[in-house]
From TrEMBL:
One of its GO terms (molecular function) is electron transfer activity. Residues 4-63 form the Glutaredoxin domain. One of its GO terms (biological process) is cell redox homeostasis. This is NrdH-redoxin. PROSITE patterns: GLUTAREDOXIN_2 (PS51354). Transmembrane segments: none annotated. InterPro entries: GlrX_YruB (IPR011911), Glutaredoxin (IPR002109), Grx-like_ET (IPR051548), Thioredoxin-like_sf (IPR036249). It holds the Pfam family Glutaredoxin.
Amino acid sequence: MRKVRIFSTPSCPYCLTLKEYLKEHDINFEDLDVSQDKNALDEMVEKSGQLGVPVVDIDGEIIVGFDKEKINQLLNIKE
């Protein structure tokens, strides 16, 4: 099972779409709200080099934004 972590904010529509997409495919993930958690924000900036959300960490592979093709590839999601 791959470890999936999402750095997001509650007001980000792309974050919500990403989380719904993963739920539809039965992918478990840890949701880190960077608007409330400074440590998560610092970790996200260190890993991605930017402040934009969502940032997805899949077993250490960083994806900025809802890049469905890359997420499908890393999580072996077939559509």
